[in-house]
Amino acid sequence: MITPMSRITVAALSANKEETLDSLRNWGLLHILPLQTPENEQVTAAKAAFAQAQRVLEALPAKATTETVDENDLLAKISEVLQSKKEAEEALTASSAELKYLEPFGDFDPHIIRELLKRDVHIKLYHAEEKAYKGAKDFIVKEFKRTKGEVFFAVFSKDHINLPYTEIALPLKSVQELKKDKEQAEKTIAECEKKLAAYASKRKNVGKLVLQASDELAFKAASAGMHSEIGVCFIQGYCPKEKLASLSELAAKNGWGIISQEPTADESVPTLLKHHKFVKPMDTLYDALSISPGYREVDISSVFLLFFSIFFAMIVGDAVYGLLFLGITFFASKKLTEAPRHIFHFLYIMSACTVFWGILNAGYLGLNKDSSIVAAIDICKASWAPEFLRNTADWIRVDENVQYICFVLALIHLTIAHIWNAWVNRSEKPRVITKAGWLCITWMMFFLVCNLVLRHEFPQQVLYLGIAGVVLIVLGLALRADWFSLGMLPLNLISSLVDVISYIRLFAVGMAGYSLANAFNGLAGDLSEINIIGTLGAALILLLVHALNIALAVMGVAVHGVRLNTLEFSGNMGVEWGGYAYSPFKKSI
Predict the structure, then answer these.
(1) Which residue in 11, 153, 268, 501 is deepest, having the highest Cβ count within 10 Å?
(2) Domain termination residue (choose one: 173, 197, 218)
(3) Three-state secondary-structure class, residue 33
(4) pLDDT per residue as tens digits for the range 306-317
(5) For residues 236 and 33, is the Cβ–Cβ distance under 8 A?
(6) Is the pTM of this model over 0.70?
(7) Alpha helices in 110-201 (DSSP H)
(8) Model pLDDT for residues 399-409, shown as the tens digit of each residue
(9) Tell me, what DSSP letter sits at residue 307?
(10) Cα–Cα distance between 476 and 472 in angstroms, integer?
């Protein structure tokens, strides 16, 4: 459910500005709406400090040593090490680049060449492609080295030298000095990396410092966004209506004046989703995709979670993959004790659904469904399994039946969208009429798609249903005077057909994953029969292919499973995902 919000304006004495912000931050329920651009020198400095803290945290290596380090002023000390490393890397790059072109000439002192120039003895160093090199007439040429199709040579003359080859700038240091610089830079880099590995043991401390810097930036930005006038400062934002009582108590305690207003229709209000514990796992996907329904839209999380679980299972489609996901989730939940629990609940649901579908569909690492291994664990041959379950599993293993399931899912999914949309807008009769028309069209398209793809019979009565749907749509649009949508009706009818057909992607992507694994299983089987090396090669191939297949399956879910909910369903539901998440002003730690 989307929590109702109120727009709040708090007035306090300018002299108490810092204390006011501190109290509101401790309250932790006000999503701040700046009254002016939150920019000043303090905000700029806080941004720089936060960015530096993030760079320090990102620069710490994953592997830490047990060497003891001083915990005082961690950010400054690590930043100093990073700066030293950066300077050393720049010095290494510069010296390596110069040595690349100077080493072919051997060790020489560039100062001597400069002294000779004062006596009108010109010496220039060149390199050229071997194919383009034709020497230099009228000059003394000393060739030093030919390597990788390039020629390195020096030209001597009493006159100015200008040749059509690439000149190598005379260095400030000798080759020997550059080599020493390179060695010193490499030594400095190694020392810095050693220090960073030692500081990596304090990653949690640095993480807390990053959060503190984030809190400081938020505080400075909130302060800069406040408006002050004749000794009074104002801060505005949104808070849940159910929390207004606690805000009133806080205002009375601090001597503030507060105004509570209903947001206007054209106001951009943050969205706070308040989910039941069974739907809470859906927050995981919303956070991962950075999406949120608009404040005035409908929360479709329950339907989203239900159908996404089905889509996930059908796309991944392998019971062993599902068991692997379950194992990884269980291990991660034990290790990451501070992580939100709803993340693991989401993964448990997806994994369990995948295992169930994989068992029904005999999906076990892409093995042939008539192989001895699959036969030993096949639910269709299990005496303990109920007959209806065995019959269902046997029916599902026919490709045409899975395709039919895809279209049935489309019908149910889109029917829910149309009926729900009509109910939400039940006060607008023309809109309800239009949605009733589109519901009829969706049912007709279902039977039409089954006829076109699966060769099912198309009932004549369904055609009358479709005609009735068009009449209802035209009537509804005419009552709303929506002539543009009326003109787009032919294209929208085609779009409705495409919406139903698009659910076939669940079968197509799932079948692609099975086919890929099955093909490489056969290849690996042939290799394993050769010798021990072939067996090891087969094992490596299977490991890599199944890892790739899992990655492709997860990508398929991210693309297709999400799309069917956020585009096909949401489009018919009227959800545009144009909102932004409620983010109250509070401390991170």
Answers:
(1) 153
(2) 173
(3) strand
(4) 999 999 999 999
(5) yes
(6) yes
(7) 110-118, 175-199
(8) 999 999 999 99
(9) H
(10) 6
